[in-house]
Structures are given as structure tokens and as C-alpha cells.
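Recall the central idea of this unit: under ordinary conditions, the amino acid sequence of a chain determines the structure it adopts. In this exercise we apply that idea directly, starting from the sequence alone.
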Amino acid sequence: FPGTSNIEKLFMDKNQISIVKNLENLKKLKFLNLESNGIYYIKVDAFSANLALATLNLNHNELTSLEPSIFHKNMNLIELSLNWNNLKFLHDDQFIANRELKTLRLRGNQLKAVRKKFFTNNQKLEWIDLAENKIFFIDIKSFIWKFFKKFDLKN
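Accordingly, the structure predicted from this sequence is:
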């Protein structure tokens, strides 16, 4: 996106984007909506230049997996929505760099387990939505419970 370096909010929902590549010119971007695009792949460095990114909406796409370090440069990420994709698993260190993360939405995926290391670095996490997945195992040591306001696991 040449000439767009001052954009802070970008709404690109309901298009036909299938692959997300590098958004390097959007250095001031704080809010990005990529909902309902049919995205099935996001390059590992797609958001690496978006250091100010605080809210990312990837709901209703076709993602089955995420690169392990895809959000590692997004240290200001507060809200991440990945509802209604087809995610089958998360890497142990998927959110390790996202210490500011307060809201994580993973509703309606194919997740089966929440392992010990998933959220141990996310001490500000207040709300996590894991409803309507296929979860059969949760390691309770994954969470820092004292900050939680909402935890949804309904099926």
C-alpha cells in the first residue's frame, strides 16, 4: 500500500483476499479488520512491520494453522479475533510475545487441547473465548486465573 503510511484503521473485511503478505507500509496501523475474506494463509512476516497494531480481526476465514511466530513482533496487540476459522492447533509459543493481550477470541475452530505453555506469558489476558471447539484437554496451568473476567468454553 504505497502512500498509506499514516493510516491507523483499515477495514478490509468482506473482500476476496486469500493470502496475506507483508503490510510493511502501514507502520502506524492500530486496527485491522480482515474478517470474511476466505484467507487461508498468512505469511510469517505479514504483520511484522505493524508494531502499533492493537486490534486484529481475522474472524470468518479459512485458516487451518498459523506460523508459530506470526504475532511475535506485535507486542502492542490487545485484542485478537480468530473466531470461525478452521484452526486445528496452536503452537506452544504462539502468543508468547503478546504480553499486552487482553482479549483472545478462538470460537468455532477445531482446537482440541490447551497445553501448559499457551498463555503463560499473557498475564493481562482478561477474556478468552474457546467455545465451540473440540477441546478435550486443558492444562489449568496454561492460565493466570487472577486476571480473568470471562472464560468461555461452552460447546
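The chain is about 0% helix and 20% strand.
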